[in-house]
Amino acid sequence: MSLTVLLIEDDAASRAFVTHALCGSVRVDAVRTLAEAGDHCAEARYDLLLVDVGLPDGQGDAWLARQRALGNDSPAVAFTADLDGDRRRRLLACGFAAALAKPITAPALRMALRPWLGDPDWEDRDALAAVGGAADTLIRLRTLFLAELPQQRERLDAALAAGDAEAARRVLHQLKAGCAFVGARALAESVNRLHAEPGSPEAARLVFARIDHALANTSQNG
After folding, report:
1. Contact yes or no for 3/48 (Cβ under 8 A)
2. Which domains does the chain carry?
3. Considering 25, 46, 75, 159, which has the largest number of Cβ atoms within 10 A of its Cβ?
């Protein structure tokens, strides 16, 4: 059975954007009001709730509190155009697993939701455990990890081209540590192989392919 997401968003363009961004990986049920959302939750359990916290018929945090009182334990992620540190803390304290600022790009949205929707390239359970279950922290760490990947790729490529196995292993050691901390499962597997066989062209090609795949999934639009 495919994963299901309930999107509560009154803006038509935003509803279309999120639905398109997640298309192909999950089923998105999109509603405009908290009242509609309550009806949907009464009929089905969702794998994830995406909640615009400021809606015409109420506030998303108060709605989530009512849902929790009714026994709805589906993880929830808040969306808001006005997100600072204090508001993020308040939303997390209200029971949201994470809070995302609008506008957001499609790749950033998909990456932010990986802890709940999954991805074959990432191990989310262990990564969340490493940060004490703090999904917001994991999102920030993964963003930083991916931001550093192009420079690490460049250093690794230069070391291998120069035949400098020790320099290559230093870069790979850094990559291994980063992969373990953020749950980059597929990349970690290829890095471990190249660390053991730094002279293997096949192992090197696999590492670069996995890095390029991770970066492409982060930077592509739509």
Report:
1. yes
2. 4-118 (3.40.50.2300), 138-219 (no CATH)
3. 46
